[in-house]
Amino acid sequence: MSTDQNMNEFKQSSLSENASADPGKNRSGGGRGPLILVLVLALAVICLLVYMMKKPGEKKPAEEAQSGVTAEQEQTVQTEEESAGEEKTAKKAETAETAVTAVTAQESRKAGTGNTAGEGPATALSPEMQTLDQNLRTELSQKGGNWSLYLYCLDNGQEIGVNANDPMISASLIKLYVAGCYFEQVEKGLISDDYQSQLYSMISASDNGATNQLIDLLGMDAVNSFIQEHNYKAGQLNRKMLEQNGMENYTSSRDCGMVLRDVYKGTYVNKDASARILEAMRGQIDRNLNKIPAGVPAGVDTANKTGELLTTDSNGMNVLIQNDAAIVFAEGHPYVLVVMTATSGVGEPQMQQEIAAVSSEVYNAVVSMDTGNVNSVHSDDSEASEASEASEAGSAAGTAGTAAENAEGNEGTTENPAENSSVNSTDNSADSAENSTGTSNGNKSAGGSSGGAQGAVLEDGTYIAEFNTDSTMFSVNEAKEGKGSLTVVNGQMTIHVSLVSKGIVKLFPGSAEEAQQEGAAVLEPTIDEVTYSDGTKKEVFGFDIPVPVIGEEFNCAIAGEKGKWYDHKVSVTNPVKAE
Questions:
Q1: DSSP conformational letter for 116
Q2: Angle of helix 271-282 relative to helix 381-393, nearest 10 degrees?
Q3: 3-state class of 566 per DSSP?
Q4: SS3 of 494, please?
């Protein structure tokens, strides 16, 4: 048998065996399984390719129908949001630049489109406040330069803001945050409270040297962390005072307004910190000279922090910064007002007068407000009273500090650098005391209701007694704890008190009018040395003041180096026989 025949017989035999093993299997379909597998794999590859070709974030038709938003619409919204974000970032950068480059009124004018003041629902404005809001927007938009304003009514929570959230060059307003950071670190036990003099000088006299000492103590990063942690959104400390590093410090009128609101409430860090800052602000050397205090009637108490700076923009043009942040204790209607400006080609006196005019307009509107039509959401008079009491019960918080150490007064050089550099808080303390209504450190009011034998006749001898006044500037030095040495000789009483500085150079036991009459027995000061709790010593002026009666008010007029006399009420209480 040939080989071919053998092979054919083998194939036929194999086919017969396969057919016998699976009689239902069609020989013609024996290769269908592999073909199906190939088709399935091909289909999977095609599906994978289609899936990968779809755009990220693209919805399936079923999902589009369910959400009601097509992929094209979603992409459009996404693009608009990205554009808005870029525009917002660009606007913020432009705002910061505008604060420096306020060259012309056209470039810096806001045209009445200021930011809303608050975050979240605002208290409804009374008719008077609505009118004031519209008037301020119109007026500030027409003024040359860049203006920012924030008003907060402490009795009912109403607020007005014109460009209130815009970052502005802070000048010395940045010192409010340095003070807050200091007190917070003291509270946390990170530093000791041994810098009362620097604190007081930094706020009342805007002492740049004292401020830089505190920044070195705290660290610039710590101050910025304090600003961020307490949500002061525009605040930035980028340099020390007078440092030339090409950068500026920033804040907003609303941020500063929130600081002053908390100072008033006694919640800026804590009650003691708030009280001490408030006391220093009441001692502001410019309080009766210009800006916000100049716009309120005489006799209305104010506490403020000023800020001035002469800088240059990117074109080398001068830009004048004039800022002021104040608590105005209008009777029945206390409020916070912050005004910040950046102008070019305008003199310092004019800008200060314009701020005073705005302050006057605000005051007249607020005091005429009918609060009966407004929900009172921030009635904080009791808290403010507690903060004020804490201020008086605490130390004078560095009234021993002297602004003579300050080369500039306020930060930077204004059009009057010589005048700025010659300012001395202690030498002007008597002049600053005119409207200060706080009581002296550690004492009751000048009426003296703190006990003791009112009207009592004391036997001859030496006593320690409390000396109470109606002014924080005309008060006993903190080292003496509000007390003086009372001497009684043949029934005639005289108390010797050491004051806070050498600012009061003349004293008269009577009225200011009587002090200016010919032959008036004006008292000259003694030179006293006081020792503070940290061991430092200082020379201050003291006076031997005749006391007509114990526990009752009597007149006492004082004068500073400028020679202007001011009336005050004082009393002597709680005499205790010295051992």
A1: P
A2: 80
A3: strand
A4: strand
Has residue 119 got a pLDDT over 60? no
Q: State residue 472's pLDDT score.
A: 58
**482, two tokens:** 């509000």
| 311-367 pLDDT, tens digit each | 988 788 899 999 999 999 998 899 999 999 999 888 888 999 999 999 999 999 999
The residue whose two tokens read 């340095």 is: 178
Six-digit token pair at 481? 């704890």
Nearest to 467 by CA among 532, 386, 550: 550
CA 141 to chain centre: 24
The residues that bridge with 168 in the sheet, in sequence order, are: 251
Q: What is the rounded distance in angstroms from the CA atom of residue 296 to the CA atom of residue 300?
A: 7
Query: Rounded CA gap, 448 and 444, in Å?
Result: 6
- Angle at CA of residue 404, ends 260 and 408, nearest 5°: 65
- Nearest CA to 199 among 186, 210, 185? 210
Neighbours of 345 (CB within 10 A): 14
CA 195 – CA 198 distance, rounded (Å): 5
Q: How many residues does the chain have?
A: 579
What is each CA distance from 62 to 59, 126, 388, 412, in whole angstroms?
8, 53, 67, 66
Which one-letter DSSP state was computed for residue 523? B
Q: Distances from the Cα of 190 to the Cαs of 183, 199, 218, in angstroms?
A: 10, 17, 9
**Token couple for 15:** 């086919």
For residues 273 and 264, what is the distance between their CA atoms, to the nearest angstrom? 11
Q: Are 440 and 304 in contact (CB under 8 A)?
A: no
Check: pTM over 0.70? Answer yes or no: no
Give the 3-state secondary structure percentages of the chain, helix then strand then coil, rounded to 5: 40, 20, 40
Q: Which residue has the tokens 């609101």?
A: 261
Computed over every residue of the chain, the mean pLDDT equals: 74
Return d(Cα 30, Cα 34) in angstroms, integer. Answer: 9
- Residue 96 vs residues 99, 106, 313, 484: alpha-carbon distances, Å: 5, 16, 11, 53
Check: CB of residue 574 under 8 Å from CB of residue 466.
yes
CA atoms of 453 and 550, how far apart (whole Å) = 7
Distance CA 252, CA 260 (A): 13
Q: Which residues contact 252 (CB under 8 A, 6 or more apart)?
A: 148, 150, 164, 165, 166, 167, 168, 233, 234, 235, 340
